[in-house]
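Please review the protein record below. Tell me whether the encoded fold seems credible here:
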Amino acid sequence: MAEQKQQQRVSGDNLRAFIASAFEAVAVPREDARTIAQLMAQADINGSEGHGVFRLPQYIRRIRGGAVNVRPNIRVERELAGMAVVNGDNGMGHLVMKFAAEKAIEKAKTAGVAWVGAKWSNHAGPASLYATMPLAHDMIGLYMAVGSANHLPPWGGLDMLLSTNPIAVAVPAGEEPAVILDMATTVAAYGKVKTKAQRGEMMPEGWMMDRNGNPLTDPKRANEGFLLPIGGYKGYGLALIIGMLAGNLNGAAMGKDVIDFNNDDTSVTNTGHAIVAINIEAFEDLKAFKQGMDTLIRDIRNSQRLPNVDRIRLPGEGTHVARAEREKNGVPMPEALLAALDQLAGDLKIAKIAR
């Protein structure tokens, strides 16, 4: 906690303004720059530091390297009543997935359920950004993606053929906050490894393993090993299936075709995503559903606890707490991250992020 208090704080408005100005400096159109900035800043406000402004220098490098199209023609390539395939034209993933989510919500209003896949996209930030978009329309959201670099071998193997392949599900309630599950299929997302490395911190045992089967705890040696799947072979299976649904099904990269965007600033990634919107009123009376959710949430929260357990939590509670605190007090910025952003500002000849 002491380290947290020493960190400088940046308001959401200042964060959005800086991110937008950085993208405009590399020829991203103003409205697109603002859209990306809004989503990236929201990641930080929600507590997903590994997917927010931390990624900005990397995104800028890839744009400058010609790996990302700054003026994409994002469009529907295939569609039926309850589905669509979006061609992102190699645009920023945030723009592609916002388009896809809006399309899924629109279709679910009449189809009841809509599945929209995306190809020729890029890294789009945390999964929950898109899974939560249907909540505003009293819908359930489900998001899956192929990760933007392979850090996971098949169970029992050594070849990096899978990624963290995240999944997120957001379910609305009535008086209670929405339940939001956002998880990688590895014990830790690779963004957490990168933030640990930038801060000079070690990783806990259980995040990574070296090629001899020993625990790997130094994030600066991450390329010497691989991430571990959640639940052993079950996490491997889940990562594989998510990759098939978000990658293969859309004609996007999967397996050996995935480009490591952490170490490649020039290659097109063809990142695949999938977003599903479920219209609750197509299945159940909305009021009754929300009341049922409230009851379930309270039953779980108030259920009997093990000794020394202070509270039973539900998925998304940390996000709700972080959002409320950071919207009020600003986003905490580690010194190393601020230094990297100041260096980027100088490189782009824009104003430093306002503290």
DSSP finds eleven helices and twelve strands in the chain.
